[in-house]
Amino acid sequence: MMKATLVLADGESFVGSAMGATGEKIGEVVFNTAITGYQEVLTDPSYRGQIVTMTYPHIGNTGVNFEDNESAMPFLAGFVVKEYCASPSNWRKSEDLDAFLKRFNIIGIQGIDTRRLTRNLRETGAKKGIISTEDHDPDNLLKKVRNYPDIEGLDLVKEVTCDKPYDWSQGTWRWNTRSATSQRNKFKVAALDCGIKQNILRLLVDSGAHVRIFPAFSTSEQILAYNPDGIFLSNGPGDPEGVPYVVETVRNLIGKKPIFGICLGHQIIGLALRGRVYKLTFGHHGANHPVRRLDTGQVEITSQNHNFAVDPETVASECVVTHVNLNDQTNEGMVHKKYPLFSIQYHPEASPGPHDSRYLFERFRKMIMDS
Predict the structure, then answer these.
(1) Per the CB 3.0–4.6 Å rule, which of 62, 126, 205, 254 could disulfide with 90?
(2) Dmax of the chain from CA atoms?
(3) Which residues form the catalytic set?
């Protein structure tokens, strides 16, 4: 198999075998602790600009299928696994993982010590790295990494958002049936696309919504011209301070319509309320993160994918914290004291992941109906 080399910005290097496309790619290296759902991870637009390491050692055994994609294509910079399964077996498989990565020109590396790599990231923080199948000189690769810009302040949203508004009507996929369409009272939701995951759209449809997706560069006037009953702010990649135009749009929408934000949408709301957002050491990426719901004391096991968090003290005059991460006590959710607005830092659509938090889509529906 073709040789591949991974070098981190701190100089640590790993040699393995190539998987997927060939060439060279730089990105911020992070790790994901999900045991299943590598296809959903690969196609999550929130990973734009990042090299994703899977901590689960055996990846590719179920292949890839069309229904489990979270976007039209993978946007991540690179993919790292311990052991790639070259002979997948699953009745839903349409192609193997290697072919999928090649088709979208995603470079991967396998056969390295992912436990050592994860320990490095966990102990010293996420950092830039490079995967190469062409240059295997660690010193050369290290120079390339260190000369590459940091992810902070970059506008990665513009690379993953849609070009023009479009409608979405597909509900949750079910085996041997058509996608569900809700029989509930219908309402209109305008979704601001900063890198939206398709399972969010499916669950909005399941809750009874007619969904129209708007590009991230849409103005508040354009969104309100649709006359939505509610507004959804999506997940997305990178630093929320790198998209001041989205912050300004959301600032002009607050108080006008009921709003629900997830992940980057949560952070955008924090900035729109004049709060502070800060970068986490190695981020939260996985499908097993415990979060406490403060109104009931219930603990939810959640799916997460973010590198930044909202400082709750800086929005305390406007919002009440509703959810707290039990691993590091960071802000995982908040609700506005005056307006019909709430947001969640994690992924209640959980694709992949547990379904503990799907009640939040019902909460959004009820907030709209009560407004």
Answers:
(1) 62
(2) 62
(3) 263, 347, 349
